């Protein structure tokens, strides 16, 4: 038996457009162990959500997927659609970015749960409702709200419902795509505490996609920094926060506001067009340390300390 739950090798996800393929995920490799939380951070448009959706196979028609993506030994990229549907929702679950638009306004909360459970298991409606009640109770939502419609709940409550729906099948892997977006800080803290408790109880693996480095520091074991469709740094949260190797990681950390902040810092420029990304190191047009080699030669993926990788020609200079 292996502890590896998810393994990607040379994963590429290209959206085909009239202008050419959008290289949203372009050659990513990583592993995740059972019970581990991996944070994925980066600016908007760097490919984080595409990575999450590719794991579940919920990509638009015509999307090109290359490389290997294995879940408990099964290659998700080559599985027949029917086999993938059996895994999706039951063994791998996804919390979508915006709970306001992911619940059908014509269905009660009970309807949502019953449909989800019975799509994967041959159980009676009564049993499905009983499981829904337990899942909602774990989120602090009483049984009396089961017959209510989505518009009768606040944003924080809807997000709790989405989490409960994701966990009702007891998945082995949960992908949370910015689960605290549009929530206030109090509700955000509650949601993160719930996710951490449930991960511990069910021993599931969690991929947390977020812009918030504070969240990553609080709940993640490892951190993957993504830029222009690629991982530029990957390592234990403490290692990456204490000694970031890649200039992009350094810039993201510098832009975080904390109690000692005296001025705001931002990264000059914008993320590149993924139809025609910059050659070699994709961060070089915005990097203050860039030299000629950064424009002509792609940096190697180097292990700078055990489990801490980065792709930068001058990574050793930052240790």
TrEMBL record:
SUPFAM superfamilies named in the record: P-loop containing nucleoside triphosphate hydrolases (SSF52540)
Entries under InterPro entries matching the protein: AAA+_ATPase, ABC_Ni/Peptide_Import, ABC_transporter-like_ATP-bd, ABC_transporter-like_CS, Oligopep_ABC_C, P-loop_NTPase
ABC transporter domain span: 6-253
A biological process from GO: peptide transport
Keyword Cell inner membrane assigned: yes
Gene3D superfamilies with a match to the protein in the record: P-loop containing nucleotide triphosphate hydrolases
Compartment list: Cell membrane
Recorded topology in the membrane: Peripheral membrane protein
Molecular function via GO: ATP binding; ATP hydrolysis activity
The keyword Metal-binding is annotated on this UniProt entry: no
UniProt cross-references to CDD domains, sorted A to Z: ABC_NikE_OppD_transporters
Listed GO CC annotations: plasma membrane
Residues that span the membrane, as ranges: none
Keywords: ATP-binding, Cell inner membrane, Cell membrane, Membrane, Nucleotide-binding, Translocase, Transport
UniProt record similarity statement: Belongs to the ABC transporter superfamily.
Database matches in NCBIfam families: oligo_HPY (TIGR01727)
Protein name, as recorded: ABC transporter ATP-binding protein
Organism the protein comes from: Candidatus Segetimicrobium genomatis
């Amino acid at each position: 038996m292996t502890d590896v739950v998810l393994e990607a090798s040379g994963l590429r996800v290209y959206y085909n457009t009239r202008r050419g393929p959008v290289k949203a995920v372009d050659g990513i490799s990583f592993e995740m162990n059972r019970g581990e939380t991996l944070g994925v951070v980066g600016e908007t448009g760097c490919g984080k959500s595409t990575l999450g959706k590719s794991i579940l196979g919920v990509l638009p028609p015509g999307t090109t997927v290359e490389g290997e993506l294995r879940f408990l030994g099964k290659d998700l990229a080559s599985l027949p659609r029917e086999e993938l549907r059996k895994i999706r929702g039951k063994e791998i679950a996804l919390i979508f970015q915006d709970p306001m638009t992911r619940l059908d306004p014509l269905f009660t909360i009970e309807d949502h749960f019953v449909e989800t459970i019975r799509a994967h298991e041959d159980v009676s409606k009564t049993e499905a409702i009983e499981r829904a009640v337990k899942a909602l109770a774990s989120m602090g939502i009483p049984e009396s709200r089961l017959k209510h419609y989505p518009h009768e709940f606040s944003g924080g409550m809807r997000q709790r419902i989405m989490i409960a729906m994701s966990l009702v099948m007891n998945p082995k892997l949960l992908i949370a795509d910015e689960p605290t977006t549009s929530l206030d800080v109090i509700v955000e803290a509650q949601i993160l505490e719930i996710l951490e408790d449930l991960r511990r109880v069910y021993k599931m693996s969690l991929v947390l996609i977020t812009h918030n480095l504070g969240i990553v520091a609080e709940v993640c074991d490892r951190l993957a920094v993504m830029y222009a469709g690629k991982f530029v740094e990957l390592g234990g949260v403490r290692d990456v926060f204490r000694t970031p190797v890649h200039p992009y990681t350094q810039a993201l950390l510098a832009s975080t506001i904390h109690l000692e902040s005296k001025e705001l810092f931002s990264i000059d420029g914008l993320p590149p067009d993924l139809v025609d990304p910059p050659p070699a190191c994709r961060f070089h047009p915005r990097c203050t340390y860039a030299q000629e080699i950064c424009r002509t030669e792609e940096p190697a993926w180097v292990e700078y300390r055990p489990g801490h990788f980065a792709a930068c020609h001058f990574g050793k200079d930052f240790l």
